[in-house]
Amino acid sequence: MSKLNPQQRDAVTYCDGPQLVIAGAGSGKTRVLTYKIIHLLNNGYKPHQILALTFTNKAAKEMRERISLLVGDEVAAKLWMGTFHSIFARILRFNASHIGFKSDFTIYDTYDSTSLIKHIIKEKELDEKRYKASTVLHRISMMKNALYSPADYARTSEFIKEDEALQRPQMADIYLQYWERCRIAGAMDFDDLLFYTNILFRLYSEAFGKRRRKVCVKSCPFAVFIQIIHRFKFRYPNNEHAFSHYIVKVAFSFRF
User: Fold this and answer.
1) How many other CB atoms are found less than 10 A from the CB of residue 196?
2) Are residues 55 and 31 in contact, defined by beta-carbon separation less than 8 angstroms?
3) Which of 36, 172, 204, 229 has its CA 20 to 30 A from that of 102?
4) If DSSP states are collapsed to H, E and C, what string results for 123-165?
5) CB burial class (10 A; 0-12, 13-18, 19+) of residue 60?
6) Distance CA 155, CA 54 (A)
7) How far apart are the first and last CA of the chain?
8) Within 10 Å of residue 165's Cβ, how many Cβ atoms?
């Protein structure tokens, strides 16, 4: 703790509810999250009850190495720590039967997904210039990240009008066929790892809630940050004190 500044120390020691730490690049986010996990371990939490998520393998490796130095390799190995995709893939393999998959499902990379979409476009005899595979894949990826299934997509008039305006009225059907063929092949793409984990947590919360008591996330896209702010304010519309109590601002530092 002696290596932390006052703001970082506040972020580490607060354990009374949800918490949002606002920090810039180079301000010590990895250090804060590392010490947060150590603090939780020192206050009665078991390693398997802590989930730590990062956006990069580099950050996950750095955190694990730092924690190993402080608590030992054996304890660090029991933490659920890694990137969103790696941890969610692990959770899905443990609970694949709940969402109609086998635990040994295949994970498609961009090449696999693009190849399948090209095949669907060719099979439907569509204009390959108008329905460029990379563009179609990007559209499907956007929908999955916004948690729109093929059925949701097909009944959302805004999306259908956009596709018609771009002279790509078959987008909804391509999305549906891509979705169905992935399931038949027992495969998920990278976006599915997030999409199906969301479904799993919503429909089968026992798959997660009873096993993890603390979730620590390092780095948050700006769009997600805005959503978090709105959700906090929605939960406490008339209590700015309750809202601000969850937020800790770590000294900002930016690299140029």
Assistant:
1) 23
2) no
3) 172
4) HCCCCCCCCCHHHHHHHHHHHHHCCCCHHHHHCCHHHHHHHHH
5) buried
6) 34
7) 29
8) 9
